[in-house]
Write a structure and sequence with these properties.
This protein is mainly alpha-helical. About 85% of the residues lie in helices and about 0% in strands. The protein contains 20 helices and no strands.
Length: about 450
């Protein structure tokens, strides 16, 4: 019998012991996820400086496109990480897989911050940058689904929404930390210093934080749901095969309903600050201050909407988010382009943050409830990572490309509208799985 099972079957376990184990699990998972996502997000936030270092040229738009393309390359590896690390997590346990993801991310992030520029080592610079980004993508592909499954499997009955929202809450904290670091650095350093070395600071900081995540995750217990699967000898022999055959329809549902949240996040939170400072003429510090404000709105509201989904159902909250983006995406972009100011940017990003919180709060719970424990890590990770890769990761690149091809600075809104339509249709077609038995 594994230690995962012993943690939950010991005869001398008391109610307070269960509460202590659950609390430690939630904290360790959230902190580790914060470190992981902070490391992953800062690449997009410092895309302009990274482009200047690794893709120099006379056209700043092409340089930014190259940096965003490299940013998107990391997402290509997310499905690979989802399949590989997801299967490992279903076969060997959530704890082991989540320790692995933090270690991989920390190594790739540190190396990213230390790579010499193109001017120093030539073509090796972008090559090494892409390799580091691929490792980051591989790690995140397993991290997101693993953290989501782990938290929901530790949830009390009727509280999966709010407990699962702690994963997205930590993502919000990572976004706050990333945008705040971008704001502070851009406000205190001039443009040359930012390009020369300022952009490297958050990458080194992300590496320094990694041991905290590793330590906390090494001391946590395995999830009770997975412990039961082990005890009953029901661990899936081929979780990838089962996810893509037996559970292919729930995987497609997870893919479809995840699209709008991915696009909304990466267009409004990652693309928009660089767009506002590079194309609309706003100071970089103003753009990142706005991003920080929106990240605070998102983070504060995410647990609230997770709690709300426990009361009225996941589907209702998610559908409001999707339809909201469908209605307001184009007017928001039009408003910002027509009034390119700090206030306009804050309003645009904050409205998006409210809608994104309504997506983020219930997401971990609804995706976890679509699958049984024996394939949950793998199936959840595949469905979500494919949506992030295809629609989210390349969203900044697609938004920049649309502007360049159409000549309209409002055109990225059309991409958001298309994503909202797909997710809305998916939500209308699926049955609400709120509080369905995990097994």
């Amino acid at each position: 019998m594994t230690n995962a099972t012993l943690d939950y079957t010991a005869a001398d376990m008391t109610a307070s012991d269960y509460v202590r184990i659950r609390r430690r699990a939630i904290i360790s998972c959230a902190v580790g996820n914060f470190v992981e996502l902070f490391d992953f997000l800062i690449f997009g936030l410092f895309a302009a400086q990274i482009g200047a270092n690794f893709f120099p040229g006379n056209d700043p738009v092409l340089s930014l496109l190259s940096a965003f393309a490299t940013y998107g390359v990391g997402f290509v590896m997310r499905p690979v990480g989802a399949i590989t690390i997801g299967a490992y997590g279903d076969l060997k346990g959530r704890k082991a897989a989540l320790i692995l993801t933090v270690g991989l991310m920390a190594s790739a992030t540190a190396l990213t911050g230390l790579i010499p520029s193109y001017a120093t080592i030539g073509l090796w610079a972008p090559v090494l940058l892409v390799l580091c980004r691929l490792v980051q993508g591989f790690s995140t592909g397993g991290e997101w689904g693993g953290a989501a499954a782990f938290l929901v499997e530790f949830s009390e009955p009727g509280k999966r929404g709010i407990t699962g929202s702690m994963q997205q809450f930590s993502v919000g904290l990572a976004l706050i930390a990333g945008t705040l670091s971008a704001y502070v650095l851009n406000a205190t350093l001039d443009k040359d210093a930012m390009i020369a070395w300022g952009w490297r600071v958050p990458f080194i900081l992300g590496f320094v934080l990694a041991p905290i995540g590793l330590y906390l995750r090494s001391r946590v217990s395995e999830s009770p749901a997975y412990g039961n699967v082990v005890a009953q000898k029901k661990v899936a022999a081929a979780p990838v095969r089962d996810a893509l055959t037996v559970y292919r329809r729930p995987v497609l549902a997870a893919f479809g309903l995840s699209i709008i949240g991915c696009v909304g996040n990466y267009v409004f939170n990652i693309f928009l600050p660089s767009f506002a400072s590079g194309q609309l003429g706003l100071p970089a510090s103003t753009a990142y201050a706005s991003g920080t404000t929106a990240a605070v709105v998102l983070t504060v509201l995410t647990p609230v909407t997770g709690w709300l989904s426990d009361r009225i159902g996941r589907k209702a909250v998610l559908l409001i988010s999707a339809l909201g983006y469908l209605v307001v995406a184009y007017p928001l972009f039009s408003f910002l382009v027509a009034t390119p100011s700090g206030i306009g940017l804050v309003v645009t990003q904050s409205v998006s943050a409210v809608l994104l919180a309504m997506y983020a709060g219930p997401l971990c719970a609804v995706l976890s409830e679509l699958f049984p424990t024996k394939v949950r890590f793998t199936a959840l990770s595949i469905g979500y990572s494919l949506a992030v890769t295809i629609f989210g990761g390349f969203a900044p690149f697609i938004a920049t490309f649309l502007i360049r091809q159409t000549g309209s600075q409002v055109s990225p809104a059309l991409y958001v509208v298309a994503a909202a339509i797909v997710s809305s249709v998916t939500l209308l077609l699926i049955k609400d799985p709120t509080n369905a038995p995990l097994d």
